[in-house]
Design a protein that fits this description.
The structure holds 2 protein chains of 2 kinds. By secondary structure, chain A is mainly alpha-helical. Chain A has 22 helices and 2 strands. Chain B has a 3-stranded antiparallel beta sheet with strand order 2-1-3. The longest helix of chain B has about 40 residues. Classes of the chains: A mainly alpha, B mainly alpha. The interface between A and B is large, with 87 and 89 residues.
Chain lengths: ~525, ~375
């Protein structure tokens, strides 16, 4: 007999598995949910990519603009004038050194009980020498100021042309061809313009002759002072003054060989940023965007912070994980975690309001005066910022180092005790070496946190854009610096969008970004490669 | 009779141990001491501004007024200090036209707009970052399988955590402030704009300095912390919970919704809060994206509700930066400087402390 029941279209098993579910774009609800979460997770990658893209989008234009900046520096003859300027600047620096020595000597004399008149009288020969020294450069200075005006005028012309061209381009872009026609741009004839600069060369040579003669006479008449220190300083100035005279023919030769149309290699745009020793903006003469002083400042402050934070953080990690009682542990750990939540701007404010003055008062104590660099001349300097940054780095270093020490297998410790080692020997010879990779990566991540910190350095580092004078030894740690993070925070609010200065700040941001990625990368490598295999 | 043979002997190793442990302990307590000093100074000096000895014991004007310029001047042999409005009224009343007065900006009045701005910034960025962060953590812990994509994702999260805050600020400036499209309906569109119909254009001119830019910048900054914290608490839910639910025929999402999230969510929220406290304390990312030095109107004084998102706010951390760097340190400015620092510290530390306490409580509640 034939069955009348209709056979199911599909086998039962298949029908059970392939239930006729709701689908959207071929996806079941579960899959949609999964992709929703997946999509959210991708945000992390997208953000990282966007950071890279937008930093480079804003920063990349810097190279073109900097190239133009450097090119005009040469074309308009500013470079030519700077030969003279350097000479005058060196002389001014020596003159300043003389003035400082006089002031120091004067303070010393009055402190020794002499009246102001007596002290001044004792210094009369010195003053005569200093005046002669200072006046010797006047002729050269006159030539310099004339040429400065001339070169600035050429640069100004070029700038006006550039602005007109931009305006014309904008008008053409907006379809206003007639108005664009009205703007006439006559290109600057740099060859002709710089000829007038070079025409001043004989006058400069003459001024140099005067300078050499006067300076030589001044140096020859340098007085012998009774004070040994002052005499040493005078001798140093004498030696440097002779060097100045000796350098004159070299400068003249270089100026004669200088040509306004000598091409500038493209790489100069990058190297003048990476290795430039000057960050000088909004200047009447020439802007320089060299990251070196900022980088050195960041590094110096970070090193001070790490020098304080590493011993403290690691000692605390060892103490908490191995020595402290459970009750101590339960207080110390959350407290240090709590420190990491102190807003950096509050720490910075504390530095401005309290710590800076306190440290300077400490450095002025007379029994500490043997310490190099004491007393500090500035309230806000790299040490103030470093101390506060140390407090920010401690929680990072502490918690990561503590994790690393806790992760050392228990039987390492037990084996050490079984061999008769005491607790300190076990810590020093077993636990710390075994967790060294973790501790080093903790230090690196602490370094990353410190070098990327903004508000504390902005408020407390003193914000003087100059490479610290490392010839002063330890005194370099008490000089004000400016940092990469600080310069962005300070100047970004005041620059015009799209200007070279704006793009230079983005370039500094790119450097910071790459630096943080590099630090992270090295920390991971160290953890992965040097971890002691737990067996 | 000699001492018993197992008595601890005084060896050099033992004295080295004692000295070393002493140093470790001293270092640990030195850290705590430094932190306490900072808290102490700010609380002690700030409390003078925020609290008062008379009822209602809290200095209400400081918390409820906008910042004003402080004028210090001498009148009839008495040294007086007044806020801007009061000073003007005083001049009119006493008919004084040109009286010599020292002025200190922001040193009078209060910090109410800054508190409001900070709360708005934190709440908005917290919502965005919790939403994205928790979803990411669910994906990473529940759905993802080991593979190249997940390794890459984790690497991205790790690296994102190390990016300096000022770089986030630059990113926010480059993306949200000067690039993000805004909908506009004028007839003459700018060069870089996309028509979207109905006479409207997407104009890539950026959102400008506004609340929305600040929200996203801060949210992305908090993201790594939120993801890591949320994943930790998802991991803490035992596998058996999921397996039991799946064995009863629930779909994956059903088992996550009913058997995982209810147990993990409190932990996720509390440990994320610590990250949020840190973000709330940041100044650098909002300097160019959301914060104004001074703004007369309150955020809700706008024509359309949506405009609220497209305007800058005053924020406490930025205000503290301004008052500690742009005005001198003296007896007249101290009030607002320490007062703002104290209120800000109080808010941020309050959030952090809640998180830490809740987490300790949470640990003892769930034990499987």
């Amino acid at each position: 007999m034939k069955s009348t029941t209709a056979q199911p279209a599909r086998p039962i098993g298949e029908a059970l598995l392939n239930r006729n579910r709701f689908r959207l774009l071929g996806l079941t609800p579960d899959e949609i949910i999964k992709y929703f979460f997946n999509g959210n997770a991708v945000v992390a990658i997208v953000v990282l990519a966007l950071i890279t893209i937008f930093l480079f989008r804003e920063g990349a234009g810097f190279f073109g603009q900097n190239m133009r900046n450097l090119r005009i520096y040469r074309l308009a003859g500013l470079e030519y004038v700077d030969f003279i300027r350097r000479q005058v600047d060196e002389h001014t620096a020596l003159n300043r050194a003389l003035n400082e020595s006089r002031l120091a000597q004067f303070t010393k004399l009055t402190a020794a009980g002499k009246t102001v008149e007596q002290a001044n009288e004792g210094l009369t020969p010195f003053d005569a020498f200093a005046t002669a020294f200072g006046d010797s450069v006047e002729d050269v200075r006159g030539v310099l100021s004339d040429l400065t005006e001339a070169a600035t005028a050429i640069k100004q012309k070029e700038q006006v042309n550039h602005d007109r061209l931009e305006q014309k381009g904008m008008l053409l872009g907006a379809g206003k061809a007639e108005e664009a026609e009205k703007i006439t741009v006559t290109p600057v004839d740099f060859a002709a313009e710089t000829v007038t600069l070079k025409g001043a060369f004989p006058a400069y040579q003459e001024a140099n002759r005067q300078f050499a003669a006067k300076l030589g006479a001044a140096l020859a008449s340098a007085p012998a002072m009774p004070d040994a220190k002052l005499q040493r300083q005078i001798d140093a100035v004498k030696a440097k003054g002779q060097a100045l005279i000796a350098a004159i023919p070299g400068t003249e030769r270089a100026m004669q060989a200088w040509r306004h149309d000598e091409p500038i290699p493209l790489s100069r745009s990058l190297t003048s940023f990476l290795f430039g020793r000057q960050w000088l903006t909004a200047s009447f003469w020439q802007d320089w965007y060299g990251i070196l002083p900022l980088f050195v400042g960041s590094l110096l402050v970070s090193l001070i912070a790490l020098a304080i934070a590493v011993p403290l953080g690691i000692s605390a990690a060892i103490y908490v994980s191995e020595i402290a009682s459970v009750r101590e542990k339960n207080i110390i750990k959350p407290y240090i975690e709590f420190i990491s939540a102190i807003p950096s701007v509050v720490l910075g404010f504390f530095g401005v309001a309290v710590l800076g003055s306190a440290l300077r008062a400490l450095s002025q104590l007379s029994f500490l005066s043997w310490f190099p660099g004491f007393p500090m001349s500035e309230r806000l300097n790299s040490l103030t910022a470093g101390c506060l940054l140390a407090l920010m780095a401690v929680p990072t270093i502490f918690s990561l180092a503590e994790d690393a020490i806790n992760n050392v297998p228990k039987h390492f410790k037990e084996a050490s005790y079984a061999l008769g080692a005491n607790r300190f020997q076990t810590i020093a010879r077993i636990l710390v070496p075994a967790s060294l990779s973790g501790i080093i990566s903790a230090i690196l991540l602490g370094f990353g946190r410190v070098i990327g910190e903004t508000m504390v350095v902005l408020l407390c580092a003193g914000n003087r854009i100059a490479i610290p004078d490392f010839t002063e030894g330890l005194g370099a740690f008490f000089q004000p610096v400016h940092t990469m993070t600080g310069i962005i925070a300070q100047e970004m609010g005041e620059v015009v969008n799209g200007s070279i200065h704006y793009r230079a700040l983005f370039m500094v941001g790119i450097m910071l970004f790459l630096l943080s990625l590099a630090i992270n990368y090295v920390a991971q490598i160290i953890v992965r490669r040097y971890r002691i295999s737990i067996g | 009779m000699s001492a018993h043979p197992f008595k601890a002997q005084q060896t050099s190793a033992r004295s080295v141990e004692r000295v070393a442990f002493g140093i470790f302990r001293a270092a640990t307590y030195f850290i705590l001491l430094c932190a306490t000093c900072i808290f102490g100074t700010i609380v002690f000096k700030g409390a003078g501004t925020v609290f008062q000895t008379k009822a209602p014991f809290i200095n209400v004007p400081f918390l409820s007024q906008a910042p004003e310029t402080l004028f210090v001047f001498e009148h009839e042999g008495v040294k007086l200090k007044m806020g801007d409005r009061e000073f003007r009224k005083f001049k009119e009343d006493h008919n004084l036209q040109d009286i010599a007065a020292e002025s200190y900006v922001y040193s009078s009045g209060g910090i109410w707009p800054c508190i409001v701005g900070t709360v708005l910034l934190v709440v908005g960025s917290m919502a965005i970052s919790l939403f994205i962060g928790i979803s990411s953590a669910i994906y990473l812990n529940e759905y993802s399988t080991h593979g190249r994509f997940v390794t890459f994702l984790r690497l991205a999260i790790l690296n994102l955590a190390g990016v300096p805050s000022i770089v986030f600020g630059l990113f926010g400036l480059g993306l949200f402030v000067v690039f993000m499209p805004v909908l506009q309906n004028f007839d003459n569109p700018a060069v870089a704009s996309l028509p979207v119909g109905f006479g409207h254009y997407l104009n890539f001119s950026g959102w400008n300095v506004c609340l929305l830019s600040g929200w996203f910048t801060l949210a992305f900054m908090a993201l790594p912390v939120v993801i890591t914290a949320s994943e930790e608490s998802l991991k803490a839910v035992p596998m058996g919970f999921r397996e039991g639910s799946l064995a009863l025929g629930a779909t994956k999402w059903q088992s996550i919704r009913t058997n995982v999230l209810p147990y993990a969510l409190p932990g996720m929220l509390t440990s994320s809060i610590l990250g949020i406290a840190r973000v709330a304390g940041e100044t650098a990312p909002i300097m160019f994206t959301a914060a104004y030095v001074v703004r007369d109107k309150m955020p809700w004084d706008v024509e359309r509700p949506l405009d609220m998102l497209f305007q800058g706010v005053m924020a406490l951390p930025y205000h503290i930066y301004v008052v500690s760097s742009k005005i001198p340190q003296n007896e007249y400015t101290e009030r607002v400087q320490y007062g703002s620092a104290f209120v800000f510290l109080f808010i941020v530390m309050g959030i952090a402390l809640t998180s830490i306490v809740l987490r300790i409580k949470m640990r003892s509640r769930y034990r499987w």
